[in-house]
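Quick illustration, no need to memorize.
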Amino acid sequence: MAQIAEITVARRQVVEARMSLEQQLSEASSGILKAQIAERIELCRHHGKELDEMLMDLIQADPATARRFEVLTSAPGIGPVTATTLLVEMKELGSASAAEVAALAGLTPMNRDSGLLRGRKIIRGGRIAARNVLYMAATVAMRWNRDLAAFCARLRQAGKPFKVAITATMRKLIVLANTLLKEDQVWTPTPP
């Protein structure tokens, strides 16, 4: 698992470098600079593909990790990148309670109170890499998982801001992942 963690971090860094280079490319005006930046972007893409292949090989080499990966990726919204990040960042998945995994991912609203001041609740702390991939996973899951889409729609109809609704959906998704791993079963859609 240490090698998987190392490669996952390296992959994340390659993606961040590529995004930074793409931003530079959009602002560059010199032809030679644009060509050099484009070459580095292509190199980052190539390295990213190599790292993805290495990750899949390592995951498939260990039957227990391969099964956990299969269970996670069965849920709509959780793709290979999200599953790998969750396996690395949240080793407690499948053995912790719903409240514990939500807190570990930094998805538990915390009060911002001081003395007589009552502030709005915010999410903070937790494992930022897991929370970041859960955000994208939740946006995808809202499109492909009827239950999560209905849940988010109910929150929006109740007047909740989008950020509150997406955070609640992220929490539901991590709790779903935890439950699936705890029960060692792949996700099946609820009948209509």
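The helical segments are 2-27, 31-61, 63-73, 80-89, 98-104, 128-144, 146-157, 162-183.
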